[in-house]
Automatic annotation (TrEMBL):
Domain GGDEF: 348-481
Organism of this sequence: Paractinoplanes deccanensis
Family matches, as CDD domains: EAL, GGDEF
One Pfam entry name: GAF_2
UniProt-recorded name of the protein: EAL domain-containing protein
Domain EAL as annotated: residue spans: 490-745
InterPro entries named in the record: Biofilm_reg_signaling (IPR052155), EAL_dom (IPR001633), EAL_sf (IPR035919), GAF (IPR003018), GAF-like_dom_sf (IPR029016), GGDEF_dom (IPR000160), Nucleotide_cyclase (IPR029787), Rev_trsase/Diguanyl_cyclase (IPR043128)
Database matches in NCBIfam families: GGDEF
Length: 752
């Protein structure tokens, strides 16, 4: 029987049992039949709850526990020795399903099938546990909190959702039950469920809602999760996010502020252990204090949505139990099983390579998903060609691959394989007549027999891969213990950064930009600072890369844009002379957002600022790695009347092609050229050459990092128009710049 049919039979047998004991016995019986086992035992909380092939009181509990711990692969049961295998069951009451047979050992494919069965059983039992715990909560805590009737209503609504899940109703129907129930139970005006897109997890869409107008719902389709407001933050941070005053929130969505949303709370939902979306509840008519009762109720329904999603995904994956349907490589589940065989006490040990493509998203966005699928298939073929017989290559999902190299004695033996893969993927791919280049970043981790479990070694390889990404991509890195410590520190900083967005811990500094011939202040550059309550000032170089990596740069960048335009517009209204311009840095992540032109327009309109007074600064590397959509977005922004500048010009991939292709207005000369413009003839020649290039192309030039009069003289003599740096002023607080722009006359002291 095919794995799909076996899982389907198992699913039907377990789901049709209305109570825990019946479902448990059906699971044991069906698993034993599917894998040809003579003995099957299910233990929950260290107690035998069901057994086939021997009586419950005959089960050697200690020996079964040894099997579950991976320390035994055989057991003496009844008439003789049996080969054994197991699958763990998670959830509120953890357990283990153990099978034994007197014949041949279980294969990796059979073990993978058993784990799928265990996952189905876990889902069914988990639904029973959730319902029972909510019933107890409603009856016990409800009485203490004075809302016993509401507690009973909560239980009744949850039971209805549970029945829909148990009967395998379509997931959208379950969503509709949840949104309607939460609106009635909490007395809120709107309830929504958002999920990340399967084809691009960086995007999210509203998939179910009550109290959300169709035009608002349309604006919340395929929005970057990082730009998804409170629901997006809950999804990214995998934590409950509550905002009592939405009107002043820095992550408020224009689509929701336009309909006067007052308060909102979002709770993440999961597939397995991964956050994939959020339930949000909100009010339009008045502000809401999200008390513990409300938080607990939404969390309970979020768990049910998670259960429905995970159950649906399990059924979808039944047909892909062993091999990836696109590439033909091993699935994650089969790869995990083979890793455990190699890394167990009786295994050979080995190395794992975590392979991630560097430019897959660019290809996917530029050439389409069909071309992306073709590329993944070709990559799989090249990776497989680099391996020995007995090695396993797997596609973990998206553009992530993994390789198991069993029997190696250390990482040194894995390095040549990584180098072969890197070299194989550097050669161009022909995608429908288009020559396409990608590269890969590879992390290498090694374990001897019994040293590390499979999940731990995968984490090591994953950390090493990210280190390879950080060090420039198209390379490999070998795992070092220090990477784990650095990763943990990064996790803590990320958590602080998410809280900083909600707590308004950021502020802006403004560095004057000066006309080099007149000394007049013509504009300012807005520079962000993070005032951490415990760490003090966190330098931008520490948190900006993390913000870009996590997507938090989107809400942070929008706040910077709105705050800077509003502040400079206020100064301009008070000034008598020419109006100031304000320069704001834009990252590649922000430029990926389709809504960026609308955000820029909204910020200008709200501030009452002329578009030509706003300058958006882009890095050269952003232009080099651009996609066609990047140029379209820049042209759309340019049509607003906003000016564009290339920041740090001369440090990377300077090319006349970029200056001709992109609608650039300003070149900012990097500080490294300015530093040596007086003492190094070569630096002076290059700097003056850039200035002349700007004049020839009718572009303004701004020199960064001017620190002494000699640099000013050289740059002004070379006809550089503008400059900034500590020679004029350091980045100033709003108050300090206010004093600089509008000095108060100090009366002379009277003579005594």
């Amino acid at each position: 029987m095919l794995a799909t049919e076996q899982l389907t039979e198992f699913l039907s047998a377990v789901a049709d049992r209305p109570a825990g004991p019946a479902a448990q016995y059906a699971a044991v019986e069906c698993a034993a039949r599917a894998l040809g086992a003579d003995v099957a035992v299910l233990m929950i909380d260290d107690g035998v709850v069901a057994a086939i092939g021997l009586a419950a009181d005959e089960v050697p509990a200690y020996a079964v526990a040894e099997v579950a711990a991976g320390r035994r692969t055989t057991l003496d049961l009844g008439a003789g020795r049996h080969a054994v295998t197991h699958a763990t069951i998670g959830g509120p009451a953890p357990g283990v399903l153990v099978l034994g047979r007197a014949g041949a050992p279980f294969t990796a494919e059979e073990i993978t099938l058993l784990r799928g069965m265990a996952r189905v059983l876990e889902l069914c039992l988990q639904s029973l546990y959730i319902t029972e715990s909510e019933r107890r909560y409603a009856e016990e805590n409800g009485r203490l909190l004075g809302y016993l009737d509401q507690g009973r209503r909560v239980f009744s609504e949850l039971a209805g959702v549970q029945r829909a899940i148990g009967r395998r109703r379509p997931v959208p129907e379950t969503f509709d039950l949840v949104t309607a129930a939460l609106r009635d139970l909490l007395g809120v005006d709107m309830v929504s469920i958002s999920l990340v897109e399967r084809d691009d997890p960086q995007l999210g869409s509203l998939v179910a809602a009550v109290g959300v107008a169709p035009e608002v719902r349309a604006q919340l389709q395929r929005v970057a999760v990082a730009a998804g407001g409170v629901a997006g933050l809950a999804t990214l941070g995998d934590e409950l996010v509550a905002v009592e005053d939405y009107t002043t929130s820095p992550i408020a969505l224009p689509a929701l502020t336009a309909v006067h949303l007052q308060s909102i709370m979002a709770v993440p939902v999961h597939e397995g252990d991964k956050s994939v979306g959020a339930i949000a509840v909100g009010t339009y008519t008045s502000r809401r204090d999200w008390d513990k009762a409300a938080r607990d109720i939404v969390t309970a329904f979020a768990e049910h949505v998670s259960l429905a999603l995970t159950d649906a995904r399990t059924q979808e994956q039944m047909s892909r139990a062993y091999l990836d349907s696109l590439t033909g490589l091993a699935t994650r589940a089969l790869f995990q099983t083979r890793m455990e065989e190699s890394l167990g006490p009786n295994g050979l040990g080995g190395a794992v390579l975590f392979v991630d493509l560097d430019r897959f998203k660019v290809v996917n966005d530029s050439l389409g998903h069909a071309a992306g699928d073709t590329l993944l298939t070709r990559v799989a073929e090249r990776v497989q060609a680099c391996l020995r017989d007995g090695d396993t290559a797997a596609r973990l999902g998206g553009d992530e691959f993994a390789v198991l190299l069993p029997g190696l004695r250390g990482t040194d033996e894995a390095v040549p394989v990584a180098e072969r893969i890197l070299d194989a993927l550097r050669h161009p791919f022909d995608l429908a007549g288009t020559e396409t280049f990608v590269s890969s970043s590879i992390g290498i981790a090694f374990s001897g027999p019994g040293e590390h479990d499979a999940s731990e070694l995968m984490v090591h390889a994953d950390l090493a891969m990210y280190q390879a990404k950080k060090h420039g991509k198209d390379r490999y890195e070998v795992f070092e213990p220090a990477m784990r410590a650095a990763f943990q520190a990064n996790i803590e900083l990320e958590a602080d950064l998410r809280r900083a967005v909600l707590r308004h811990e950021f502020e802006l500094r403004y560095q004057p930009i000066v006309h080099l011939h007149t000394g007049e202040i013509t504009g300012v550059e807005a520079l962000i600072r993070w005032q951490h309550p415990d760490r003090g000032v966190v330098p931008p170089m520490e948190f900006i890369p993390l913000a870009e990596e996590t997507g938090l740069i989107v809400p942070i960048g929008e706040w910077v844009l709105r705050e800077a335009t509003q502040r400079v517009a206020e100064w301009n209204r008070r000034r008598l002379g020419p109006p100031l311009s304000v320069s704001v840095n834009i990252s590649a992540v922000q430029l990926d957002q389709t809504t960026l032109p609308q955000v820029v327009h909204s910020a200008l309109e709200t501030a009452g600022m002329r578009p030509d007074r706003l300058i958006l600064e882009l890095t050269e590397s952003l232009l080099v790695e651009h996609r066609p959509a990047t140029l379209e977005r820049l042209n759309e922004i340019k049509r607003l009347g906003v000016r564009l500048a290339i920041d740090d010009f001369g440090t990377g991939y300077s090319s006349l092609a970029y200056l001709r292709q992109f609608p650039i207005d300003i070149i900012k000369i990097d500080k490294s050229f300015v530093d040596d413009v007086v003492d190094e003839p070569t630096a002076a020649a290059l700097t003056h050459g850039i200035i002349q290039l700007g004049h020839a192309l009718q572009l303004s030039t701004i020199a960064e990092g001017i620190e002494h009069a000699g640099q000013l003289t050289s740059l002004a003599g070379g006809n550089c128009e503008l400059g900034q740096g500590y020679y004029f002023a350091e980045p100033l607080t709003q108050v300090a710049l206010d004093d600089l722009l509008f000095p108060t006359d100090v009366p002379p002291m009277e003579c005594e």
